[in-house]
Amino acid sequence: MSGSVQSVERALAILELLGNADIHLGISEIAQSSKLPPSTAHRMLATLMELGYVEQNPETSKYTLGVRILQLRGAVIGHLTLGVHAMPVMKLLMNRVNETVHLAILNKGEIVYIERVEGLKTQGMYTRIGKRAPAHCTALGKVMLAFTPQHLWYEQVVRRNGLKRFSATTITTEDALFAELQRIYKLGYAVDNGETGEAVRCVAGPIHDYTGSVVAALSISGPQTQVTPGRVPELGAAVLAACQAISEKLGYKAGHEL
Amino acid sequence: MSGSVQSVERALAILELLGNADIHLGISEIAQSSKLPPSTAHRMLATLMELGYVEQNPETSKYTLGVRILQLRGAVIGHLTLGVHAMPVMKLLMNRVNETVHLAILNKGEIVYIERVEGLKTQGMYTRIGKRAPAHCTALGKVMLAFTPQHLWYEQVVRRNGLKRFSATTITTEDALFAELQRIYKLGYAVDNGETGEAVRCVAGPIHDYTGSVVAALSISGPQTQVTPGRVPELGAAVLAACQAISEKLGYKAGHEL
DNA sequence: ATTCAGTTTCCACAATGTGGAAACTTGTGT
DNA sequence: ACACAAGTTTCCACATTGTGGAAACTGAAT
């Protein structure tokens, strides 16, 4: 065997399958999708159910994720202090600009949303914590790429994930991406104008830790009707001030890179 | 074997260990806590790392939960249509009373916090989503028990989990519990005065779905210095109005129980 | 240089996980 | 009422995978 524990891989693949499904799934569907015999899938699910990670509706025999998963949180995602330090600043920022504020990190060439403080006017669907999004067409992603040495992300963002188009404004060539990142580096913050296909505008800044490395990004976002182009400079300044406050909490000193 | 997949149990036990830890853990600690040989623990962790559920800090060799966990967490929360419907109402309620608002469900005789909207004055640590708490000494728990037929919870709450004491005010006898639940049923909402040992006061109401069943509860909570006894009737009315709004979204019609 | 504690790799072995077959359950069509 | 189909659950012989002790490796402390 290759070094991995096959049963663990299989069990987690089933959890991810259920996580991605919009509806509850039965054994046959799960077996088929995960390319397992029904009896094997059944045993995995029985174990996951026993532990609370999966629940089965007794009437329909179908499975869904269990609430036990919500307990899996402790030291925040490899960055122990990030969320704790960021939260108070995020709240102040939201109060100040009255739009939704997100915190995200870069992981394998994509952004992952870590925290969120919603604007009080926000309605409808909101970004789920844990959601991933492409780095090249989000303000959060672009700003982290702009302030991170290229060799640390090029392979994953450009070669592996690719610069996929999501809307008419998505960046899809390397030249366009590098030019945009240079602009962002000079400006200090990034903007995305619906590049993921959503009718939102986001303004994002970088968060550095004590070594000077970019460890996260913060954004202000809202519908394009609220976050108008005219507000961008003001929001840019606000998000940069918040990023600096968080960075200082993490021990960052501008001009003192290690 | 008993029917469970041992390796899956072990892997998830390790995830829970990391989830409960406030700091990163090394192989020896993990092996010791999970009663596994280091080599076995190492192989589990290698598999979990490969899949993104665990991350290892290369400098310290210590492990913590990985971002893949957040995706599953997000999926669980997203699946609960409850959360989507509740959120806007929770925000309005928080705006109105300016205290923290929680949403919780009952799961295996305990409450699980599902959503939270923090009061703008809130400082310091806050209740983690996914956290569990005993049902008998939380306003959220008591109100769900009061409006749920006893046979659906008695075994788990009273027999399995037990009426443990957490403070001088905790209910620890069945008679006292039933009397309290009857009071709550008549009043329509529950209050807890630091019964879990925390210096907070909570006021909670029940949320019903289209079948009339209690599916969740909503609470307003804050320090006892802010949520004074004099405010309880006002807060009770506010939380009940919010619960009704959410219940109606879920198809509930008072007096039309199925 | 040596020691120690923790981490990682190796590998012989046996216990666990596998998956096909069978049994069971439920819904549908006649 | 019966037959059939599809999906779920259980059983069990078997072999592959997971196990865990030993050894090797790593880095820090002395």
Describe the overall structure:
The structure is a homodimer of 258-residue chains. The first copy, chain A, has helices at 6-20, 27-33, 38-51, 82-97, 139-146, 154-161, 174-187, 232-249; strands at residues 54-56, 63-65, 100-107, 110-117, 132-134, 190-193, 200-208, 214-223. The first copy, chain A, is built from 8 helices and 8 strands; from the N terminus they run αααββαβββαααβββα. In chain A, the strands form 2 sheets. Chain A has a 6-stranded antiparallel sheet with strand order 5-4-3-8-7-6, with helices on both faces. Chain A has a two-stranded antiparallel sheet with strand order 1-2. In chain A, β3 (100-107) and β4 form a beta hairpin. Chain A folds into 2 domains: 6-70, Arc Repressor Mutant, subunit A, CATH 1.10.10.10; 82-249, 2-Layer Sandwich (Beta-Lactamase). The first copy, chain A, has 258 residues and is of the alpha+beta class. The interface between A and B is large, with 56 and 61 residues. The structure holds a DNA duplex (30 and 30 nucleotides).
Cα shape of chain A: elongated
Give the CA-CA distance, first to last residue of chain A: 42 Å
The percent of residues in helical segments of chain A reads 25-40%
Strand content of chain A: 15-25%
Q: Radius of gyration of chain A, Cα only, in angstroms?
A: 21 Å
Given as residue ranges, the uncertain stretches of chain A (5+ residues, pLDDT < 50) are: none
Q: Which series of helices and strands of chain A comes N to C?
A: HHHEEHEEEHHHEEEH
Assembly form of the protein: homodimer
Strand order of the largest sheet of chain A: 5-4-3-8-7-6
Q: What is the second-level CATH architecture of the largest domain in chain A? A: 2-Layer Sandwich
The CATH superfamily of the largest domain in chain A is known as GAF domain
Which chains have the largest interface?
A: A-B, 56 and 61 residues
Major sheet details of chain A: 6 strands, antiparallel
Structural class of chain A comes to alpha+beta
